[in-house]
Structure prediction request, 346 residues.
Amino acid sequence: MHYTINFPAGQTDYYLNSSYSQLLQVAPIAHSIIIIDENINRFYGHLFTEYRVLIIESGEEVKTWETIRLLAEKLVQFEAHKTSVLIGIGGGVICDITGFLASIYMRGISFAFVPTTLLAMVDASVGGKNGVNVGFSKNMLGTINQPKFILFDTAFLETLPEQEWSNGFAEIIKYACIGNPHLFEQLAHGTPASFQTKPKSLTLLIDTCVQQKNNIVLADEQEKNLRKTLNFGHTAGHAFETLYHLPHGQAVALGMVVALIASEQTLQLEKDVRQKLLLLLQQYDLPYQLKIDVAKVMQTLKHDKKRNNELVDFILLQSIGEAVIVPLAFDAITAALQAFEDESKS
Ligand code: ADP
Ligand code: ZN
Prediction:
């Protein structure tokens, strides 16, 4: 299936339920430069031998300015120019690096993605936000530019480690919570295996998430309002990720629990919503409790981009599928974290 979306920051062709072999048609060898990490090179390097390929190390640690600088030097050596296209083939890290590098190289050249993790397929490759971390502060340098195309091939997921599947499911549960009660039910009736072993269900699941994110990005590409709801679970989540070195999905899962506690405390959300979320998180091998140092989490959280003086924009739920943006005072966030910590002890 193929469709095109016109965003203010660029036009993107979506090749859903596609096959990697289509790359040769959409990305001419002479103009394309592929960026992958060492794992993709190990599993799939043999597929790209006709192209010029840049290989970086894997992991969130390489999402830095230093990597951008080194890759930019390689692009100069390759004599990459205005008509060159950078193609990121990999997970979220590769998408971020490729999109950001392309956006600033020669004041902007085209880029495209072939996402190879569930997380990158449903989230990182979609929406045009690309950036790198500065120290412990996540995505502090970045751009909003849309890729020229995104090619989805679920065959890449055959080599994906279990841990990475649950990372992807955390973002999928997020979409269900903020805007899709039907998806929430569907996930509740499934398991990771029920999607992993049924390519049709998996493709449908990915399509649903891509559509939901695109609708949000179309309404608010620059994240002035609605797009902020995609940060559900990410405010406390990013702090947990940094402080406790957790994988992104696990941190977001825990962040969603904190957000529901805050929703109970500020919006009187009924407790059974949290119960349903906890069940879902367990079903998809995600954590729901963690021993934390509330003061340290608060300290980290205060460095968040979403901070606005003494308030932090928190995404809360009014019900499953209904998210609201609520600026929370530090006291209110501390109270939610304290309750989360107390319940994690018991
Ligand atoms: P994410 O997509 O979760 O944001 P990364 O880009 O860091 O995160 O990818 C997660 C890890 O999975 C990395 O170590 C990456 O090399 C590896 N990886 C990516 N795609 C695949 C795949 N299809 N098969 C096996 N490993 C993969
Ligand atoms: Zn995320």
